Amino acid sequence: MSAGGRVAMQEFLPMSNSDSSSFASVTPQDETHIVRESKPEASPPDEQRHTRARSGLMSRLTWVLCVLIVLLVMRYVVPNLAEELQYAITRGQERAKYEVATEGLKGLPLQDLSKAYQMVSKRVGPSVVHIFTTSTNNAAVEELPPIFGPFPREAHGQGSGVIVDPEGYIVTNYHVVRGSNDIRVTLSEGRSVPARVVGFDAETDLAVLKVRADNLIAAEWGDSDEMEEGSLVWAVGSPFGLERTVTFGIISAKHRAGSAGTNYQDFLQTDAAVNPGNSGGPLVDEQGRVVGINTAIIGETYQGISFAIPSSVARKSYEQIKRDGFVARGWLGVAMETVTEEFAKENNLPQASGALVVTVVDTTAGASPAKRAGMQVGDVIVLWNGQAIDSPKTLSLLVADTEIGSTADVKILRDGQEVNLQVAVGERPRATR
Fold first, then answer.
1. Catalytic residue among 130, 175, 252, 306
2. 3-state secondary structure of 189
3. Per annotation, catalytic residue among 180, 224, 279, 306
4. What is the pTM of this model?
5. What are phi and psi of 266, to 5 degrees?
6. Selected catalytic residue, list 205, 266, 271, 285
7. Cβ neighbourhood burial of 388 (10 Å; 0-12, 13-18, 19+)
8. Residue 397: which residues within 8 A CB-CB, separation 6 or more?
């Protein structure tokens, strides 16, 4: 065989069993297929569990983070959005109100109402005066030896008043001028003139002054009895020395007798602002007429409640003081208390009304009208000149208005029995200063 034949034979000589087996089972195409289909070795069971645990933990952390984000949004973002939304709604409502009010006010006579308020002030303003007082206190000065004697000290006060007669008569509060050595009145146009006290009535805290000045404008009296709760009123005066100050309010209540003073004052209660310095100034109605004299407040400064002496009381006192220099009132001469339900039951009284006599005045100067008429402690006064008595306050006012020297028919209850008495009404003792 030629060499070339030997070579060809060698190419087809059989290989060893192992080689032959490998050759028979593996081809280039099969190798490629094996590479593609090969899989990684399985992880041990512990590692798989750890992987699943880490995956679950991450999932829970992600969920918690999402919840926190939602909570933060609800805590900070949502309220701000809600607040801004509310602001936007409110702004829209306010703008709508503004536009409606702008158009509505054009058709309302508020300017006329404002002018009416101004005219009330202008009508009474020229009649309101500022009062400045000086008093001397002769208190001894401790620092000085007794040889120097008492050392005079001056005290100053101020208040208001109202001219009620062009002849120069001025009504004010008694406590404004009480104890004063010198009184000066500043008129509305700025003149300062001296004033003298014509007389006073301590029971109603009223005083009448007189000045010598010309061209005075007097205020007109109004009728306080016609005023009702809710009626408009203006208070004029000099609070804290601020002259010609005007405040506005309503009548809050009537007949506040004894609420802040004596039974004779019978206050009007108002919410018009009144402060120290307003005392003695007028309270006027919508026509600028005097319906009261501003007198008292609750506390040191205005707190929404002020009291005025009604013109029905002030005018009567003024006229008596102008004529006589004082106010004379009827006098019975007893101290009284309210009849309680318990007292009425214990004494077989039909009802808890009337005035219970607890003291009958009897002094060395003479017996009181009650004592002379035979009135006793424990009596309950139920009728005075035919008018029913429901409280000691009512009896005090009736006695005060009774003509001095006249005889009053009085019915009392004594030990459950009715007794009729005749009382000669005396004159109530007056304060001297």
1. 175
2. coil
3. 279
4. 0.70
5. 50, 60
6. 205
7. exposed
8. 257, 263, 264, 266
330-331 and 426-427 beta bridge pairing: antiparallel
Cα of first residue to Cα of last residue in the chain, in angstroms, is 175
Is residue 43 part of the annotated active site? The answer reads: no
**Residue 207 burial by CB count (10 A; 0-12/13-18/19+): exposed, middle or buried?**
buried
Determine the length of the chain: 433
pLDDT digits (tens, 9 = 90+) for 214-265: 999 999 999 999 999 999 999 999 998 888 899 999 999 998 865 555 777 7
127 closest CA partner among 171, 176, 178: 171
| pLDDT value for 353 | 86
**Average pLDDT of span 336-350:** 87
Known catalytic membership, residue 259: no
Can you count the helices (H) and strands (E) in the chain? 11, 22
Closest CA to 308 of 297, 319, 321, 292: 292
- The answer to whether 211 touches 198, Cβ cutoff 8 Å, is no
The residue with tokens 């600028």 is 288
Contact status, residue 117 vs residue 232, Cβ threshold 8 Å: no
Rounded-to-integer distance, Cα 208 and Cα 165, Å: 11
3-state secondary structure of 423: strand
Whether 317 is a known active-site residue: answer: no
At residue 249, what is the residue type?
G
Q: From CA 54, how far away is CA 362, in angstroms rounded?
A: 109
Query: Which DSSP string do the residues of 124-160 spell out, in sequence order?
Result: HGGGEEEEEEEEEE-PPPTTS-GGG----EEEEEEEE
The CA distance from 325 to 198, in Å, is: 6
Query: How far apart are alpha carbons 257 and 291 in whole angstroms?
Result: 16
Enter the tokens of residue 177: 């001028």
C-alpha span between 295 and 204 (Å, rounded): 10
Instruction: For residue 281, give the DSSP letter.
Output: -
Name residue 420's amino acid. Answer: N
H helices of 131-254, in order, are: 174-177
Coil, strand, or helix at residue 334? strand
User: Residue type for 167, please?
Assistant: E
Query: With 0-12 CB in 10 A as exposed, 13-18 as middle and 19+ as buried, what is 315?
Result: buried
Asked if 294 and 278 count as a contact pair (C-beta separation under 8 A), the reply is: yes
